């Protein structure tokens, strides 16, 4: 089965009413920041929180009656697992999902909640994939590949049809790349209908496997990335040819850029995106000149980010912007000094979040102490005002931490 416009249109009919027809949102605030007319395709609003619903639904519907009876198996640490599990239950197909031992507990439980048998095995994704293949062979199950499968690619490509229905005068499209099924499928649809659209793929610097393959390099990737949804060490064989033919360029983004994009989507557009889902916005922010004055669509591929991680990312964003600062103040250890510090900070409009009064564990004289004060501030200029006023009172104040490197 090839993957072209005809197959993608067939997929659109097959999955109609079974997945969410997601909205395309004009992002007014981000458009002003980046100097383009930016539109966000909100696949984070799918039932399981990511675009994976589409490909999983299409693949499962393409199975024979015998394959449905025997059941399916998939390997995934997150979104693909949930997509397959959800649609398999809905269609009455037994599903087994092999997940690595390090898979987040929340994603494991969510996958189980969709009725799938979950097998936790393997200390790497490659080991889990091998185990899934072995179980498939032993039990006669159909393996549902997360990206290198024509039916899956066609399902993801239905996003491209919707994009051009909602924004027919689209100039540029930016799509995250992991294994390449999403980008390849969308590109196949969009380029067939409107060849003049420029399509950019996005990978994180720690996992540039598609970029490396298309530039004749041996793929090597690894590390801990916040964009774990596209942390793929080897792209698909089918997908790499689609991307080679249809995608203009692959842009690489670093980890800090992805964090900043998550923060921008949350603060400016009130949207929750996981790391992989925010990489398109990260690429536009990092390469704004390429998109100046154009109508640009970006795929927000998923919103399945752990709440604690999201909290950390948002807090780090405040630190990076100078809106959350840790001040260290040297004081004479006597009554009333702490009151002076809090009065000055409060008078400027600073909000004290935490105070640590250190007498014992810092290398300071016996009659002195150091105060660490975490303060919520307006901006960097506000921080400078607080320090100036503290010093005017004879207090040696300095910024211990207000910005993250990068």
How is the secondary structure organized here?
Elements: H1 5-15, E1 24-26, H2 28-34, E2 37-42, H3 52-61, H4 65-70, E3 72-75, H5 79-91, E4 95-99, H6 105-113, E5 117-120, H7 125-139, E6 142-143, H8 150-166, E7 172-176, H9 181-193, E8 198-204, H10 209-214, H11 237-246, E9 249-253, H12 255-269, H13 279-286, E10 295-300, H14 307-320, E11 324-332, H15 337-347, E12 351-358, E13 368-376, H16 380-392, E14 396-401
Parallel strand pairs: 2-10, 3-4, 3-6, 4-5, 7-8, 7-10, 8-9
Antiparallel strand pairs: 1-2, 11-13, 11-14, 12-13
Beta fraction: 15-25%
Give the averaged pLDDT, no decimals: 92
Distance linking N and C termini: 45 Å
Number of helices: 16
* Portion of residues within helices: 40-55%
CATH top level of the largest domain is Alpha Beta
| Biggest sheet statistics | 6 strands, mixed
The gross shape turns out to be: elongated
> What is the correct CATH architecture of the largest domain?
3-Layer(aba) Sandwich
Structural classification: alpha/beta
User: Low-confidence spans: pLDDT under 50, at least 5 residues?
Assistant: none
Total strands: 14
Query: How many domains?
Result: 3
As laid out across the biggest beta sheet, the strand order is 1-2-10-7-8-9
Task: Write down the Rg.
Answer: 25 Å
| CATH fold name of the largest domain | Rossmann fold
The string of secondary-structure elements, in order, is HEHEHHEHEHEHEHEHEHHEHHEHEHEEHE
Mind explaining what this structure looks like?
With 406 residues, this protein is α/β, with parallel strands linked by helices. Helix 3 packs across helix 5 and helix 12 (255-269) packs across helix 14 (307-320). Strand 7 (172-176), helix 9 (181-193) and strand 8 (198-204) form a beta-alpha-beta unit. The chain starts with a helix and ends in a 5-residue tail after the last strand. The radius of gyration is 25 Å and the shape is elongated. The protein has three domains: 5-51 and 149-316, Rossmann fold; 56-143, Rossmann fold (3-Layer(aba) Sandwich); 322-401, Alpha-Beta Plaits, CATH 3.30.70.260. The strands form three sheets. Strands 1-2-10-7-8-9 form a six-stranded mixed beta sheet, sandwiched between helices. Strands 5-4-3-6 form a four-stranded parallel beta sheet. Strands 12-13-11-14 form a four-stranded antiparallel beta sheet. The chain contains 16 helices and 14 strands.
């Amino acid at each position: 089965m090839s993957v072209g416009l005809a197959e993608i249109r067939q997929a659109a009919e097959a999955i109609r009413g079974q997945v969410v027809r997601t909205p395309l949102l004009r992002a007014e605030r981000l458009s002003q920041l980046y100097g383009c007319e930016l539109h966000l395709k909100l696949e984070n609003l799918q039932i399981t929180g990511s675009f994976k619903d589409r490909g999983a639904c299409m693949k499962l519907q393409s199975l024979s009656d015998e394959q449905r009876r025997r059941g399916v198996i998939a390997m995934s640490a997150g979104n693909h697992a949930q997509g397959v599990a959800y649609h398999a239950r809905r269609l009455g197909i037994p599903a087994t999902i092999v997940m690595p031992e390090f898979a987040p507990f929340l994603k494991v439980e969510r996958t189980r909640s969709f009725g799938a048998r979950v097998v936790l095995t393997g200390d790497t994704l490659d080991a889990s994939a091998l185990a899934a293949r072995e179980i498939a062979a032993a039990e006669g199950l159909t393996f549902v590949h997360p990206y290198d499968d024509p039916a899956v690619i066609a399902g993801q490509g239905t996003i491209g049809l919707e994009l051009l229905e909602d924004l027919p005068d689209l100039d540029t499209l930016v799509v995250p790349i992991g294994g390449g099924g999403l980008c390849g499928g969308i590109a196949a649809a969009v380029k067939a209908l409107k060849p003049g659209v420029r399509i950019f793929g996005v990978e994180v610097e720690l996992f540039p496997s598609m970029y490396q393959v298309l530039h004749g390099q041996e793929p090597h990737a690894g590390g801990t990335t916040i964009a774990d949804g596209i942390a793929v060490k080897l792209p698909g064989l089918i997908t790499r040819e689609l991307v080679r033919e249809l995608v203009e360029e692959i842009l690489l983004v670093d980890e800090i850029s992805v964090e900043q994009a998550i923060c921008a989507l949350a603060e400016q557009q009130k949207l929750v995106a996981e790391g992989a889902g925010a990489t398109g916005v990260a690429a536009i922010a990092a390469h704004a000149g390429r998109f100046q004055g154009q109508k640009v669509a970006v795929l927000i591929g998923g919103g399945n980010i752990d709440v604690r991680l999201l909290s950390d990312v948002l807090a780090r964003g405040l630190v990076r912007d100078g809106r959350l600062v840790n001040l260290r103040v040297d004081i004479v250890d006597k009554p009333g000094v702490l009151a002076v510090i809090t009065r000055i900070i409060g008078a400027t409009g600073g909000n004290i979040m935490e105070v640590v009064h250190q007498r014992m564990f810092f290398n300071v004289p016996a009659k002195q102490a150091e105060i660490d004060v975490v303060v919520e501030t307006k901006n960097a200029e506000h921080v400078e005002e607080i320090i100036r006023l503290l010093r005017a009172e004879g207090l040696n104040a300095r910024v211990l931490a207000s910005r993250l490197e990068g």
